[in-house]
Amino acid sequence: MTFSSTADLKAAVAATRFGLGARPGEIALARHDPHGWLQAQISPNGADQPQAGGGGVLAGTPESYQAFLAYRAAINAAGQDPMARKAARQPLDDALAQEVLARAWLAAVTPSPFRERWALFWGNHFTVSLMKGEDVGATAAAFEREAIRPHVFGRFADLLSASSRHPAMLMYLDQQNSIGPSSPAGLKRKNSGLNENLGREIMELHSLGVDAGYSQGDVTEFARALTGWSMGGPGAAVEQQGTFLYQQPYHEPGERRVFGKVYASGQERQAQAALDDFAASPHTARHIAHKLAVHFVADDPPPALIARLEAAYRSSDGDLAQVANALISAPEAWEPAAHKLKTPYEFLISSHRAAGTGPTDAHKDVLGPLGGFGHRPFAAPQPNGWSDAAADWAAPDAIIKRVTFAQGFANAHAPKAGGPAPAQVAQESLGARLAPATLTAVQRAESRPEAFAILLMSPEFQRR
């Protein structure tokens, strides 16, 4: 197979930059119309959902949270017995492992890799992390399935609202503990108080951006508007446990002035009105445009690309399908030079896609390797998610870990004798992005595993 034309190069960029790495035959499939191949993956139904081993959709938040409550009760009953405590925890660990495996399998085998990359971007943008504790860990994966994936090609306002209301986000940023000082509950409880975490992160990370010009007073007023946004806990009716629940007694009464606008008393609706205005703000359009450009193109993206994405957001009232189409239509996004270093998760997934395989064991194939890389799924160390900067994944020890992973992965997954030749695998994986020097090194390797490891560690495979 020989690649030389502009269409060849665009097909390779479509699969390796906008996608998650090429599976066998994917670049050839995209070659006829690279833009059309990507555009067909923009779905009004949102992103695909990870599937359980038996083919059914994985459990939702209420079941996850109830599993956590059962675990907590079992832990309390176990007292100081380590074996009993370990046994009580096992169902939660098994559920998370199933979630992680299903998500990685989807990424590795999907025929719509741009759709999946787009969903993963938004899952990181609206981070919740099991690093906060077991209650968040029980719902973090369900958060991505329920609050993120259905809305990634809809209106940003709906995505912002769904993520802000989801119990995983409420727990992650301590919103369920936020009580207005002058609310009925606040006047009765001496140790209660306002918590600004959710309000701050919505404004700073999720919508307006840190440079929008709002003040600390705006953050505090928005946090007051959010009081009452909570969830059904252990004392709620079973059907309300682990779901959004507005607690009117927690709500701080009165009007709020946030970022130059006055919001009349409206209880639950007061915060929602502010969210809608944040979504419509030009500051949000700029913030989202910049983040998308950084993720897909370069750590220092072309200003013209940011301007295109910002214009698409503003002209469409935050329609993310229109923003996605603007991204894949922008000439700046198709420049041949690959500036982005794959994150460890992207490296793992693209390795499987190159091999035409998918992970089958959560611990051996996903949690173990990514834990070694410091990139464990659903475990970002802070609310702004995993870094998108190449320098943060390119330390010398991190590169050594990539070499070790590539060697082990190649030993397990390199195409066997009788399968495609190493040179063909390299061409199928990178297309016109494959450098002659890399192809020569692959062809001269002493074994198929060595050839595949060389491919995985090549500069053009490591970058997108």
Instruction: For the record, give the distance between the C-alpha atoms at the N and C termini, rounded to a whole number.
Output: 21 Å
Which percent range fits the helix content?
Answer: 55-70%
Oligomer: single chain
Tell me what portion of residues adopts beta-strand conformation: under 5%
Count of helix runs = 24
Low-pLDDT segments = 54-59
What value does the Rg take, in angstroms? 24 Å
Topology as a string of helices (H) and strands (E): HHHHHHHHHHHHHEEEEHHHHHHHHHHH
Rounded mean pLDDT score? 94
Major beta-sheet overview: 2 strands, antiparallel
What spatial order of strands do you see in the largest sheet? 1-2
Which key features would you list for this structure?
two-stranded antiparallel ribbon, two-stranded antiparallel sheet, mainly alpha, 464 residues, single chain, 3% strand, globular
Q: How would you characterize this protein structure?
A:
By secondary structure, this protein is mainly alpha-helical. It has a domain at 6-38 and 339-462. Helix content is 57%, strand content 3%. The chain is built from 24 helices and 4 strands. It has helices at residues 6-18, 26-31, 34-39, 61-78, 82-109, 113-125, 134-137, 140-148, 156-165, 167-172, 184-188, 197-206, 216-226, 268-280, 282-296, 303-315, 320-329, 344-355, 362-373, 396-413, 422-430, 436-444, 448-456, 459-462; strands spanning 229-231, 244-246, 256-258, 261-263. The strands form 2 sheets. Strands 1-2 form a two-stranded antiparallel ribbon. Strands 3-4 form a two-stranded antiparallel ribbon. Strand 3 and strand 4 (261-263) form a beta hairpin. Helix 12 packs across helix 13, helix 13 (216-226) crosses helix 14 (268-280) and helix 20 runs antiparallel to helix 23. The model is unreliable at 54-59 (pLDDT under 50).
